[in-house]
Write a sequence for this structure.
């Protein structure tokens, strides 16, 4: 949170830029880095800072825009100040008359009337900026301020309404400070840099804008098999920017473009285990299908006895199917003799241990990689031991290295 540019946006599933920089220390400068889950830009920003060409995919429009803003270092301080002056003028003229009743009801619940008026007036101005460089810059700044001016915390996996935020006023002042801090961060960077490229693309599909055998290294942290709904997590922002307006919008416009990571991504009734056994994934991963089937049946059995009765057994199958497609695309874009580093966590849905990292290593072999190794980073999951409705299995976070 103290690193310039990396700290421009709080993201619940972010990972350490220091890990990326450590890997890059021994990589030739002509290497091209591939990132299938660009997210908030950790790998791409790190590569750009260290002087490497990098290419990434991001399936979620909100994060795609955030990533592009963090990679654009051509913003000029004088132009930022000109825009801020115009915004101040608009606020002084329109704050009394702006009507927020047409805004999404969730926004009206999360922000007091005055704050929401200010946020919306700034948003409407930003959306009219013709220069995409500055529109993206200000969109990111205002997205950051959404966290700081809400009545309740929204910078957590899901909105927490049992705690009210203190000091959630002065939205414009926070916006201005954020913008000026961002410009200062840019001024610390070299004006001569190799700009990373990010595509609005689902990494389960072939990206024809990236040629085969062009990248020398992959550094990424895929979604974990832990039922985190990225569409739900970002709904305050996507509602605010007009990307989504409802649960159905989130499903159609966000979840459909992402690896299946939550039970909200699909309809239980549409899954048939016999049909699944005829998919490319099942047919090309016959060595692990029996163990997956065993875990599937055990999770399904336990679900019937648990509150919520969530279909984690179906989620697991969709997840590994999707990740197989991601690994196929990863193998396509990587050159021979290259490596991929994946930060992953294992899981234990309804108390059934799923060695996610090892399973993905085996799937990578069927996707065309030669070998894999696993390095444990830390133990996790132990903070839930005091809760009677949680499992007490110690989990781990790992680095999966594919060669």
């Amino acid at each position: 949170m103290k690193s310039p540019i990396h700290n421009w946006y709080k993201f619940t599933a972010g990972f350490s830029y220091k890990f990326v920089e450590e890997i890059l220390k021994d990589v030739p400068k002509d290497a091209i880095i591939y990132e299938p889950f660009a997210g908030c830009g950790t790998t791409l920003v790190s590569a750009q800072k260290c002087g490497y060409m990098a290419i990434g995919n991001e399936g979620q429009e909100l994060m795609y825009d955030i990533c592009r803003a963090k990679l654009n270092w051509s913003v000029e301080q004088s132009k930022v100040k000109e825009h801020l002056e115009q915004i101040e003028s608009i606020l002084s003229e329109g704050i009394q008359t702006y009507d927020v009743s047409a805004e999404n009801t969730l926004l009206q619940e999360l922000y007091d009337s005055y704050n929401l008026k200010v946020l919306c007036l700034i948003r409407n101005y930003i959306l009219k900026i013709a220069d995409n460089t500055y529109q993206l810059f200000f969109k990111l700044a205002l997205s950051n301020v959404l966290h700081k001016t809400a009545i309740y915390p929204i910078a957590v996996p899901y909105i927490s309404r049992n705690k009210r935020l203190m000091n959630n006023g002065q939205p414009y002042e926070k916006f201005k400070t954020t913008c000026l801090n961002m410009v200062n961060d840019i001024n610390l960077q070299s004006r001569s840099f190799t700009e990373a490229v990010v595509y609005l693309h689902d990494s389960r599909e072939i990206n024809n804008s990236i040629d085969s055998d062009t990248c020398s290294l992959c550094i990424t942290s895929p979604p974990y098999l832990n039922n985190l709904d990225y569409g739900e997590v970002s709904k305050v922002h996507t509602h605010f920017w007009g990307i989504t307006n409802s649960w159905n919008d989130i499903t159609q416009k966000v979840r459909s473009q992402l690896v299946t990571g939550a039970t909200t991504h699909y309809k239980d009734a549409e899954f048939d285990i016999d049909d699944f056994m005829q998919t490319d994934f099942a047919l090309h991963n016959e060595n692990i299908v029996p163990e997956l089937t065993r875990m599937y049946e055990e999770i399904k059995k336990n679900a019937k006895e648990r509150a919520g009765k969530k279909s984690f057994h179906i989620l697991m199958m969709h997840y590994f199917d999707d990740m197989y497609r991601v690994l196929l695309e990863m193998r396509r874009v990587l050159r021979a003799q290259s490596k991929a580093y994946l930060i992953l966590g294992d899981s234990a849905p309804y108390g059934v241990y799923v060695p996610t990292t090892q399973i993905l290593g085996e799937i990578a072999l069927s996707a065309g990689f030669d070998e894999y190794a696993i390095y444990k980073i830390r133990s996790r999951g132990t903070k839930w031991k005091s809760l009677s409705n949680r499992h007490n299995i110690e989990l781990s976070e790992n680095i999966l290295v594919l060669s």
Residues 312-333 form the longest helix (22 residues). The CA atoms of residues 302 and 326 lie 29 Å apart. The two ends are 32 Å apart (CA to CA).
